[in-house]
Amino acid sequence: MPLCLVTGSSGLIGSEAVRHFAAQGLDVIGLDNNLRMTFFGADADTRWNRDQLSSEVKNFTHLDLDIRDRDGVDALFRQHGKAIALVIHAAAQPSHDWAARDPVMDFTVNANGTLHLLQSLRDHSPDAVFVFCSTNKVYGDTPNRLPLVEQETRWEIDPSHAYAPGIPETMSIDQSTHSLFGASKAAADLLVQEFGRYFGLRTGAFRGGCLTGPRHSGTMLHGFLSYLMRCVATGKPYTVYGYKGKQVRDNIHAADLISAFDHFWRAPRAGEVYNIGGGRFSNCSMAEAITLCEEIAGRKGNITHAEANRIGDHIWYVSDLAKFQGHYPAWKLSYNVPAILEEIHAQNIERWRREG
Ligand SMILES: NC(=O)c1ccc[n+]([C@@H]2O[C@H](COP(=O)([O-])OP(=O)(O)OC[C@H]3O[C@@H](n4cnc5c(N)ncnc54)[C@H](O)[C@@H]3O)[C@@H](O)[C@H]2O)c1
């Protein structure tokens, strides 16, 4: 039976990947040591998700392995070798703001961890397809130099600008403020490309906008739609930082992202880079997201606005999906922001009430 290795398997993207590829008939091994809870505290504990996978997915094995453990990672690849058909690499320190607290740990997880996986892939499983969850933060704050227009509920790009359909992969990643997180992810993103170009491995770096869905263990520092919905639905306070709450994000449901990974796996390329997100189909400003959450939860949020923005935070980011859609024309987005929020609310409200 071909094998799929998923790193960060108890997280949002990893857990969706486990379910999807197990349903395709692959055996799935998930690596996750719940580092998310160490980063962000109790709200971010992912054990509930790991336990659901273990009880609901038959051909799934969980390993408490840290991707920083070079020998442990290598032993795993050596053990399974050519049986590994696909690696979905979703383990990370995923927060912009957290990275500044401990740049060494951030870089060790994001960059060194990725290097360990790539080198073991090259040594033991060179025919496998490797999918990396990169980020739009590799572009740093360059998107903030686009000509933006303030509207009633959001910032928008000047409609005559070439990037009006979204930001393409050709945007420079140089000479901008990335945050330490953006820098460690850019290092990993370049390694993923290089192992494709230099060694011919079938690697793809997917530069995500906001990735979201009901299996996010949302917290103040990461997982904004999930955490915002949790706060509005349970009455917890939520703070919006800067840009008058009109900053725009494109949001992609984990299932739509995994469907893109599936397309890449079935017709892989070497060293590719794609911008991937909700694009023009699924995006919202903070203010628009708050209104939607309040409508769905049927109550007012306890929202405060702080004037200062987060360092390097994007004012407007919408992904241009044209390159990926050009390579994989059968791929389609199925969730927009209201559908995503409805599902986050419906699937979590009982757990949030229990947990308080
Ligand atoms: N969520 C987003 O909005 C977003 C946007 C762009 C890119 N990404 C990227 O997508 C990927 C998945 O994001 P997510 O939202 O699912 O994050 P997540 O935090 O929900 O999942 C990541 C999982 O990795 C695990 N992990 C962290 N460090 C580990 C280590 N050293 N060894 C083993 N496991 C470890 C965590 O415990 C967590 O369960 C990350 O690479 C992230 O940078 C996310």
How would you describe this structure in keywords?
alpha/beta, Rossmann fold, 7-stranded parallel sheet, 41% helix
Domains (count): 1
Shape: globular
The end-to-end distance, rounded to whole angstroms, is 43 Å
- Poorly predicted segments: none
Quickly give the CATH architecture. Answer: 3-Layer(aba) Sandwich
Q: State the fourth-level CATH superfamily.
A: NAD(P)-binding Rossmann-like Domain
Main beta sheet: 7 strands, parallel
DSSP helical segment count: 12
CATH first level: which class? Alpha Beta
Radius of gyration equals 19 Å
Order the strands across the largest sheet as they lie in space. Answer: 3-2-1-4-5-8-12
Strand content: 15-25%
